[in-house]
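Sample pair:
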Amino acid sequence: MTEIISIPADREGNKLFIKHFSKMNGRMFCEYKSTYNDMPFQKTELFFADNNKNVVISGEDGTVLWRIPYKLLNDKL
C-alpha cells in the first residue's frame, strides 16, 4: 500500500497530496497533486529552501508552487 501525506493548502479545506518519495543521485523526488484541480499525480523534484527548513515544488519556470516544512517529510526522504 502506498503511503500518501495530506497537507492542508488553505483555510477552505483544499489539500496537497504527496506520495512515492525517492532519492536519486543526491536529488529528491515525489509525486504530488492538489484538490485545486482535477489533474493526476505528477512526478517532480523537491528543492531545499529557507536554510533547509522547507522543501519546495516549483513550476517549469522556477516559480514556487508549494512550500512544505521539511520536518513533515524528513522521515520519508
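Residues 70-73 form the longest helix (4 residues).
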